[in-house]
Task: structure prediction
Amino acid sequence: MFSITVRDHMMVAHSFQGEVFGPAQRLHGATFVVDATFRRNELDEDNIVVDIGLATNELRAVVAELNYRNLDDEKEFDGVNTSTEYLAKFIADRLVDRIHAGALGEGALGIAQVAVTLHESHIAWASFERTV
Amino acid sequence: MFSITVRDHMMVAHSFQGEVFGPAQRLHGATFVVDATFRRNELDEDNIVVDIGLATNELRAVVAELNYRNLDDEKEFDGVNTSTEYLAKFIADRLVDRIHAGALGEGALGIAQVAVTLHESHIAWASFERTV
Amino acid sequence: MFSITVRDHMMVAHSFQGEVFGPAQRLHGATFVVDATFRRNELDEDNIVVDIGLATNELRAVVAELNYRNLDDEKEFDGVNTSTEYLAKFIADRLVDRIHAGALGEGALGIAQVAVTLHESHIAWASFERTV
Amino acid sequence: MFSITVRDHMMVAHSFQGEVFGPAQRLHGATFVVDATFRRNELDEDNIVVDIGLATNELRAVVAELNYRNLDDEKEFDGVNTSTEYLAKFIADRLVDRIHAGALGEGALGIAQVAVTLHESHIAWASFERTV
Amino acid sequence: MFSITVRDHMMVAHSFQGEVFGPAQRLHGATFVVDATFRRNELDEDNIVVDIGLATNELRAVVAELNYRNLDDEKEFDGVNTSTEYLAKFIADRLVDRIHAGALGEGALGIAQVAVTLHESHIAWASFERTV
Amino acid sequence: MFSITVRDHMMVAHSFQGEVFGPAQRLHGATFVVDATFRRNELDEDNIVVDIGLATNELRAVVAELNYRNLDDEKEFDGVNTSTEYLAKFIADRLVDRIHAGALGEGALGIAQVAVTLHESHIAWASFERTV
Result:
């Protein structure tokens, strides 16, 4: 199995609902350093998993939808706890949509799995992985 | 598959038995930076894998049993080579016990796997992963 | 010159005033990984710059005043752009106050300089350093 | 499942064939920080996955074949795009050969999988994993 | 003293002249992760050292002159050993030129020092710092 | 001012004397990731601060004197608290001795300062710097 990973980041505000979250129920924020991994069994005809330039651009485009925002104000997340693990899935799902739409190139249609890791600090991170 | 990881560390002395270990047969020490990963297929009702606060506390409690100790003097490790990979399993097993005991919350009973990575330096680390 | 550094982090929301900030004028957030450095010319009688445990506790106490907050709602920062470099100075000044108050121990009165670095992402950070 | 990982690096020149590579079609270079992971289900009789010293030596030997070279001039890579993911496989395959040849010790014959990650920068890396 | 640092990277080929360089006399390559630091005594009227967006753009522009190139073929470096420390100075000097030309904004004219660090691997890096 | 830094590590056991150290009064251990920095105002005739290969070798030789040892058993440290900051000075002083002895090459006699940082974990490190 081959994979490539590209990294970007976003800076968002949000708050959580539920006693388990303690002080994180208050409006606060986070930098999420975002790692997007693309996996496949065989390389494409250019000998790559996917073009790193295209992967970087598409990750940036997905992250840009969330960057510099208060997620509590986004209709998409109404009534949703935008936990780190939830946001990892949100970004992974968007990347899979873009693969299917051809935005990562024709060769990228051979990608089998996508995994996204969001680092919320030097001591905590979350991931989500799925098939394409 | 979702996961969250939390990080802590411990500083221990120990020595190894066996020619393969060369100078590490002498009493020496290590800082182990410990990453504990919890994985599950679906998020709980709070939209998380497990509360990061609880996960951090329980990891700290497990690590505290070993921290600032000479492992050669601990009965638990009598006659055991406390290699990095062995200690990763030791910590993972303790975390699974705590999940079963409910220490990570009721929602955490849905955790499917635990993985523990111990970084012994900037150029070497070891992991153990198991089902819950 | 000797120094020791300890690390903690905080997760805050805020927004900036001024066209130069572009999309960061919107309410957003950041994880700041905070490194506090203490410097002196000679070690104290315990052969240390300052006790790492005390330094860690005091840094945590200073960071706790800001953690999980929307800085736009804090009176202390009314009309202030809470830039990364400004927050580095804010934390450094608080640490110096605590040194003078004896919170880092008597030996710590010999500390000559404090420097604070706030990492806002994997590609940007800011620092402030001052004499004690 | 247990694993250990050791890290080394290499500094090579190369160029790519194919419009998808843009400016990387020019002769350029890269530092690849190389992580080699060895996995197995049970530890050997010394309570380890493989001796870290031997693993480090063998990784260094494999990396030395490529280090400080222009890969475009190496017959082995004639007509091949030496992408990061391709080089990860190249190194993994060589390590598996060495395991089979006994170079990592008799106990290492129990290694089940090898994975190699090449970090080409702070924002991009690639991996290959295979069974032994 | 305040500072901000922004990070970018470049991937170049080059070779060195001189026996001291051993195998690095052969054509090889490197990824340089480039950290550019800007320092000043007082913040500007926006409460910053320099706009991070502008600093990032200007660093990228300077790095782009070298990126994906074989430095041995660049007239600018004819007969020059393009060591990591030399390249750190090259980039720092270019950034100072851009500060003087106003490319980092009017407020940036108050910057007192520039420092550039080039990481050539996980175990070696070089820096150059100068006044503006 | 130019500098280069090279990294190595060591794994030692030790204990501390003094109530301030709390549980670290027990015999425990640490991995110290060691960064040695060499600074000078002008590059030598090879356009470098010092040969990275020689610097790496000499750092390794100094570190080897301490590696895989219980510092409490070393006569050199009898009655001494081998704190992280103290060990940083110990290594820096040894490196300066080696510069003076010519072990880093004739060009290295132009080195003006040496700084050593010892990372004891992901959240604490200490440094010492001195003139040559």
